[in-house]
Amino acid sequence: MSLDNKSTENNNIAIIKPKRKKAPIILLIILILLLLVATAIAAYGAYFKDKAAPGTILGSVKLAGMSDTELQKRAMDTFNNANLHFDLDGQSVTATPGALGLSLDSKQTSTNVLGFKSANDFCNKLKFYEPKEMKLIVNADYDQARAFFTEAYAGVLTTASEPSVNYNAEAESYSVTPGIAGNNISQETVDRICDEITQNINTEKAFKLTSSELAPLITDADAQATCDKANIILDSNYTFTLNDKVVANLSRDTKAGLMTFAQDLEQKQIIMSPVDENIQPLVSDNLAKMVSIQMLQKVVVIKNGAEFYVIKNGRDGQNLIDQENLIKAIHDAIVADTELTTALTVETVPRDVKQIVLGPDTHWVEVNLTEQKTYLYTGDTRVAEYLISSGKNETPTVTGGFLVERQYVKDTMKGSDPTAPDYYVTEDVPWCTYFYGGYAFHGAPWHNNFGHQMSHGCINMRVAEAEAVYHFAPVGTFVWVHN
Q: Which residues contact 63 (CB under 8 A, 6 or more apart)?
């Protein structure tokens, strides 16, 4: 081998070795670059994870880097400050979205800007060079929008008047008040404009409105059908019986008070329904009072373990029961526009018995009108007796068993009829013990004819003896007056 050939070999070897060293370096540089890019992307993603991405705008306002709270506030400010313009036959009106019945869902608006769930969404978020418009999520209340236009253009628009069913108390029947057509913006037009605004709140555009004659949603014929049904109820018998006897048959006026009418514009009809708030007192007050009997207490005097005298016999009471089912029966009859005949159900309330026991130490008083005497007893023992003057034949003393009701050291006594010839007014009558209404034991210092009938019905006594009765027979003491 020559020297030149050797040199050539050496040169070749020198050229090949550097190439083998550069390849790892290039790969390393690429890896570093990729790592830097990944780090940048991760940092970008971490920073903008809960913030609006670069390029996000709302109108001309840049939203990049805004948080959920900031985005919601920005959306709400934009929504509240927006002015919408409308034109009807050359008359312009400006309104905020809220006045029109629009409402902003600020949370969903922000969520739509911040949220990404797929790789494509994430990649799109990285495209900061592409503008992203934040769309306001707006909901519409179409009825409020129509009401707004009707009020805003009150001089131009008129609302259709729906027919109604009304009761004539004089004629005792229902009749229909016909509906009247109006000149208004159709609901379809209102819905279309609201839908357009919810897609894009355009404050530059003037929305054109047109009006037309609008007939009532409910026809007079439909209203008349409901009216006829109501009059059928008025013509029907609503009868309530007790023990096969008619207790009540509701009048037309009463039945009219049990019905109400509402315009159902969605169903385009007038709905008749029972008024349970009026049915309930009809049952619990009116019908209940018709059949109720107040229980009266029996008051009996017991002496030596046996019934001595019945002061008051009393009576059993009676109450209306099963009222809830009765209310339901009336309700259902109105709904079905049918007649109603139903038997009332009552329960008996047994009378209470009050016993006044004349024990060995109990004070009580006996008045014998035949003898013209009053006797005082303690138990079975007579402790005193007095001559009296009871009522004259024309003003007799009441007979029976009584309990002392009230007492006065002095009282003014008057006759019952101021126009009567024998009317009297006597002041300072001493030691009055009333046992039944105006009947009393009392002192009578104006005469001394005791043992004879002299009074207007009271028991006249000598003053000292009337005082003795006053102290002996307090309120509640049994008094027995007989011939």
A: 52, 56, 57, 71, 74, 113, 134
Which conformational region is residue 265 in: left (phi greater than 0), alpha (psi within -120 to 50 degrees), or beta?
alpha
pLDDT digit string, tens, across residues 323-345: 999 999 999 999 999 999 999 99
β-strands 91-95, 84-88 pairing = antiparallel
Alpha carbon dihedral 25, 27, 30, 31, in 10-degree steps, equals -110
Choose which CATH entry (3.10.20.800, 3.30.1240.10, 3.40.50.2300, 3.40.50.2000) describes domain 222-354.
3.10.20.800
Alpha helices in 299-450 (DSSP H): 323-336
Q: If you search the block for the tokens 């009304």, which residue do you land on?
A: 166
Radius of gyration of the chain (CA): 51
Say if strands 164-168 and 173-177 run parallel, antiparallel, or are unpaired.
antiparallel
Q: How far apart are CA 424 and CA 458, in angstroms?
A: 14
Of the pLDDT bands very low, low, confident and very high (cuts 50, 70, 90), residue 20 is low
What pTM value is reported for the model? Answer: 0.59
CA atoms of 41 and 36, how far apart (whole Å): 8
Give strand ranges (E) for 15-171: 56-58, 61-62, 84-88, 91-95, 102-104, 132-133, 138-140, 164-168
Instruction: Name the CATH superfamily housing domain 359-482.
Output: L,D-transpeptidase catalytic domain-like (2.40.440.10)
